[in-house]
Amino acid sequence: MPETVEGARSPVELSVVIPVYNEEAVLPLLVDRLRPLADSWGVSYEVLCVDDGSSDATPVLLQRLRREWPQVRVVRLRANAGHQAAISAGLARARGDWVATIDADLQDPPEAIGEMLAVARAEGVDVVYGVRGDRASDTAFKRLSARAFYRSIRALSAVDAPVDAGDFRLMSRATVDAVNALPEHHRVLRLVVPALGFPSASVSYTRAARAAGESKYPLGKMIRLSVDSLTGFSIAPLRFATWLGLLGGVAALGVLVYAVIAMLLGNTLPGWTSTVVIVAAVGAVQLLALGILGEYVGRMYAMLQGRPSYYVAHDSLVDSSARARH
Ligand code: UDP
Ligand code: MG
User: Fold this and answer.
1) What ligand 1 atom has the least distance to the C-alpha of 86?
2) Pick from 32, 47, 113, 205: most CB atoms within 10 A?
3) What is the pTM of this model?
């Protein structure tokens, strides 16, 4: 168990956070598989189900489950807020020294949670990622889009995110506190967590097919996640606009010079040169100004995101008294 300052008042050693959206078909299967495992972990635990505004029988099933399984906690969101927001709500409420996040549909094997905990303790790391070694059960489109997603985010952002790690992971209390402290909306946790830079390890697992029901991630939500990832972790699109402005500005200056030369050579209609010069000059000034504005907007955005510009791994003065862990 980590010797965090919060450790003393944490009532459980492990929280399992599960986002649940219209999963009436899956819940009974999940419970059958998770409960015997949880009881075999040998740690005190809570299973924190975040009902993401389900409109099927999920809320009823969860209330029943809460009565039958004392370690279950249910948090219900008023409306469907999305997978990432549901996990964030769970992280904000989890009380464990360790917090695991896992999808409800049994695509991630709950068996791996015990393994993650063992790895975290043996290697003294804060984060253990579940990495999808084999995703043969996913559709070709899902695999292809996931591949494109993970590779382009890696290329465009400065975050060293593990490839093919989704939202199945174990985090220490210190990590969860750091995530909770970020003021950001639209958090993409699979990028936020690696960006925090805590020592990490990973366990590989085979991504199974959904145990029952339909995917709750239609194309629209997948695109949303990609846009959030890109805009949240890269100012490449903004930079692109800046460069476009600069290029446009230079091109407009070229047109201006051409118009003046053409006039001096005398082969222009009266009034043509002045028109072109005005249009080109105004265009150049606007595009360049937009580029400059873009740079400042980028800085403001970074400040609004409120991510610290560094994270301290350890400080000998503080660590000798408070943290004996690493
Ligand atoms: N989920 C959620 N809110 C949503 C969509 C999904 O809480 O708006 C949950 C869902 O119940 C599941 C997890 O997020 O536990 C992953 O969703 P899903 O399995 O449908 O996504 P896929 O595996 O198809 O990408
Ligand atoms: Mg799934």
Assistant:
1) 7
2) 113
3) 0.82
